[in-house]
């Protein structure tokens, strides 16, 4: 009997055949092995030398090729060393690193971004001190005094534990990004300097825009909160008094203004959905006129709209006058760390040195446009680029050094780390909640303040003088803070 | 005695070829488009629009995708996104791994679930209710809670940094639904079939292999499809179990190369997704009938 198979019929033979072919072609990958195959696509050394593993995240997207090219340069300069690059998704990098350490297969050098992450890894003894790197030549690559242990942001327990990637002011700089053509079209020849001007302009543009153009997008409302109260965002403590202060009158006024603008339809709709449409793309499309923005939005908007009349200004301040500046709490954000379990510490240190070299910083800046940790590498070029010069100007005008209890308040670090890492205490989340859901901000802020006060009382059991430790009487929110000796 | 179902025709000419079975195809009058089909078409379009948009975005520039609105037809066609998907997403390296990983997980799932389902379908099996209860309870445990013990277990077996260990970790938590599907199916198979096989001299395993497993094709089709799609799209398990061997990663992990900490390469991601969805679509086209039958309870007699 001849049995005809339709297209949808699967026979055991065909399934087994297909499985066999695929399994055979890649069968060697089925059973695990502890020796990673070199992923280098660049120059190898025949496997006779030292192999280093660098665990990073592909940031920004497309950085894989850049890092591979840079590692090839490193290998050329250091014959006998091969660098295997392991890329982990950004959100999973820390989890992946922890598992690698637990597996006994820690990378030699890894990206460990931010103070909480560095503290987490350093506390477990997974990061190696980099003090041998610190020579006069190394120090000269960075701004004067920026590698001081008390303020660098790269030190743990007095030892250098990380090297930076981006310029220290890249993150905390708060910009007011606006489309000068839209402002001009609706009769405004300058950006708003105060909150009332901002509200007036936003209303006028939205009203005349007839649903096509809006006045405002509150993308980084948290950046506006910086200038509203002394160190006015996380962790909701006024460092001049050591007391909780999220319910500060000026902060409440700011959030209530945005709540009003939101409920009256002045703000562009859709911003409430996180990640739905990035603010810079709506801005580049000319759908709204102005917004508080992070530094990296500038290049993104410019890529999408090369001819746009994009301008930068300081963020508008309260009508009663500026109360604080954007806070520079550390000279740098930690990025690269070296494993204490590296089998090749000398070679790993060479790689760390390379990642902190002016050549690498220059290459990263030229590739991605981000200001890197060594200003020598990019400052002259940045001044020739109007957008980048604008970022530098706003940064110089609106950024000031603030005390950082994480680095300075000996005995209060744990408390500070706990409240800064507590998602329930995030001021911006509470503020957005009030704006989006049209609820009074003050009671919400008072609730947060009450919770922080409870935590302070709890902490006093272990550290009786914790309030004193968190009070910096010599801190003037309108000036650069320097530690009084 | 011939039992004539309403859908069969009585053969008057014994030399005529037998009628082709009606495989659920609509008869001529049923194939006529009714007016409400036109009413449903826009809804169908809305349903498939995100998929079409993904395909369309993979041929657009980043600028056009972000600023160009909702239109599907690219103004300036580009294949750069596919080139980036191949290099940045490492599709060239990861496709073979993904097939190996998905098929291994699939084989583990089908073999284990069908055998378990056959055994558990016996009503007189001691402890059957307890095992079934544990299986159902296991459905409600999030994967995140089990990843550490599973990781330790695979490490202890010496299968870390290999696709077999990853496939085991992927297949094990996904076994519950397939087992229940097989239990439901085998529970409905007439006992006489098994008894007839035993009369012919078949043992327990032979009865399963020669009689029961072929009967269970609809369920197997369903399980194959579910398992393959789940494994093909898996992200967390292949990431965790290939930490020391990035060369063994799969497309699900490769896709994340398009995500930076602040920005995302959406057009590259769309191109990558378009490429990686092709095998799934092909598999579904092959197995859609058995999938539907399996889900619907299958034909058992």
Automatic annotation (TrEMBL), chain A:
Region (Disordered) location: 29-51
InterPro entries: Bact_solute-bd_prot1, SBP
Top-rank taxon, per record: Bacteria
Pfam families according to UniProt: SBP_bac_1 (PF01547)
Descriptive protein name: Extracellular solute-binding protein
Automatic annotation (TrEMBL), chain B:
Entry keyword Transmembrane: yes
InterPro entries referenced in this protein's UniProt entry, alphabetically: MetI-like, MetI-like_sf
Region feature Disordered, mapped onto this chain: 1-27
Cellular localization per UniProt: Cell membrane
Matching Pfam families: BPD_transp_1
Keywords from the named record: Cell membrane, Membrane, Transmembrane, Transmembrane helix, Transport
GO BP terms: transmembrane transport
PANTHER family recorded: ABC TRANSPORTER PERMEASE PROTEIN MG189-RELATED-RELATED (PTHR43744), SN-GLYCEROL-3-PHOSPHATE TRANSPORT SYSTEM PERMEASE PROTEIN UGPE (PTHR43744:SF8)
The protein's name: Carbohydrate ABC transporter permease
Organism of this sequence: Ruania alkalisoli
Highest classification ranks of the organism: Bacteria, Bacillati, Actinomycetota, Actinomycetes, Micrococcales
């Amino acid at each position: 009997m001849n049995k005809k198979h339709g297209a949808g019929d699967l026979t055991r033979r065909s399934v087994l055949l297909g499985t066999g072919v695929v399994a055979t072609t890649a069968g060697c990958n089925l059973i695990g092995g502890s020796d990673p195959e070199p992923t280098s696509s660049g120059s190898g050394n025949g496997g006779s030398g030292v192999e280093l593993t660098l665990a990073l995240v592909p940031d920004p997207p497309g950085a894989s090729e850049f890092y591979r090219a840079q590692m090839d340069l490193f290998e050329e300069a250091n014959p006998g060393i091969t660098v295997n690059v392991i890329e982990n998704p950004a959100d999973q990098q820390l989890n992946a690193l922890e598992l690698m350490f637990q597996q006994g297969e820690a990378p030699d050098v890894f990206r460990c971004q931010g103070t909480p992450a560095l503290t987490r890894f350093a506390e477990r003894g997974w990061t190696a001190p980099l003090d041998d790197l610190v020579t006069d030549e190394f120090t000269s690559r960075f701004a004067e005094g920026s590698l001081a242990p008390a303020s660098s942001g790269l030190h743990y327990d007095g030892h250098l534990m990380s090297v930076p990637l981006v310029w220290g002011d890249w993150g905390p700089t708060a910009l007011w990004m606006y489309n000068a053509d839209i402002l001009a079209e609706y009769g405004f020849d300058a950006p708003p300097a105060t909150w009332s001007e901002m509200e007036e302009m936003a209303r006028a543009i939205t009203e005349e825009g007839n649903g096509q153009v809006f006045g405002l997008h509150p993308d980084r409302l948290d950046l506006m909160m910086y200038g509203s109260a002394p160190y006015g965002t996380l962790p909701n403590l006024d460092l001049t008094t050591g007391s909780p202060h999220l319910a500060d009158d000026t902060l409440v006024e700011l959030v209530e203004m945005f709540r009003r603008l939101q409920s009256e339809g002045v703000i562009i709709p859709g911003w409430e959905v996180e990640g739905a449409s990035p603010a810079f793309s709506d801005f580049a499309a000319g759908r709204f006129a102005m917004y508080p923005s992070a530094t990296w939005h500038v290049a993104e908007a410019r890529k999408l709209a090369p001819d746009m009349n994009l301008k930068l200004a300081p963020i508008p301040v309260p009508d009663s006058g500026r109360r604080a500046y954007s806070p520079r709490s550390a000279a740098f954000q930690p990025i690269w760390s070296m494993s204490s379990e590296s089998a090749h510490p000398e070679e790993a240190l060479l790689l760390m040195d390379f990642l902190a070299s002016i050549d690498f910083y220059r290459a990263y800046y030229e590739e991605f446009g981000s200001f890197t940790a060594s200003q020598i590498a990019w400052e002259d070029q940045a001044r020739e680029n109007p957008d980048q010069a604008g970022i530098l100007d706003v940064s110089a005008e609106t950024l000031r050094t603030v005390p950082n209890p994480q680095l300075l308040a000996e005995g209060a670090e744990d408390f500070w780390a706990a409240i800064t890492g507590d998602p329930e205490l995030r001021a911006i989340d509470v503020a957005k909640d009030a704006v989006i859901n049209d609820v009074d901000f003050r009671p919400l802020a008072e609730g947060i303040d009450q919770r922080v006060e409870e935590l302070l009382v709890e902490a006093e059991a272990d550290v009786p003088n914790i309030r004193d430790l968190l009070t910096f009487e010599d801190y003037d929110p309108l000036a650069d803070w320097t530690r009084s000796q | 005695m011939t039992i004539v179902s309403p859908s069969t025709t009585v053969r008057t000419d014994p030399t005529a070829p037998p009628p082709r079975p009606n495989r659920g195809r609509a008869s001529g009058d049923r194939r006529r488009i009714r007016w409400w089909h036109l009413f449903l078409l826009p809804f169908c379009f809305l349903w498939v629009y995100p998929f079409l948009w993904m395909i369309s975005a993979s041929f657009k520039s980043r600028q056009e995708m972000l600023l160009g609105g909702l239109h599907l037809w690219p103004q300036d066609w580009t294949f750069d996104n596919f080139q980036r998907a191949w290099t940045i997403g490492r599709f060239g390296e990861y496709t073979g791994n993904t097939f190996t990983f998905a098929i291994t997980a699939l084989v583990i799932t089908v073999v284990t679930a069908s055998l378990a389902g056959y055994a558990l379908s016996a009503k007189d099996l001691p402890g059957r209710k307890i095992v079934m209860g544990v299986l159902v309870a296991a459905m409600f445990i999030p994967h995140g809670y089990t990843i550490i013990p599973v990781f330790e277990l695979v490490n202890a077996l010496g299968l870390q940094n290999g696709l077999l260990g990853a496939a085991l970790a992927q297949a094990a938590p996904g076994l519950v639904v397939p087992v229940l599907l097989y239990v439901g199916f085998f529970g409905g198979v007439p006992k006489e079939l098994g008894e007839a096989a035993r009369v012919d001299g078949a043992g327990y395993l032979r009865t399963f292999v020669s009689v029961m497993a072929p009967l269970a094709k609809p369920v197997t089709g369903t399980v194959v499809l579910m398992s393959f799609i789940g494994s093909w799209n898996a992200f967390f398990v292949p990431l965790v179990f290939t930490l020391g061997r990035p060369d063994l990663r799969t497309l699900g992990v490769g896709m994340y190369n398009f995500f930076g900490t602040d920005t995302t390469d959406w057009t590259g991601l769309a191109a990558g997704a378009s490429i990686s969805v092709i095998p799934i679509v092909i598999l579904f086209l092959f197995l859609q009938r058995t999938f539907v039958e399996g889900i619907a309870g299958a034909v058992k007699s």
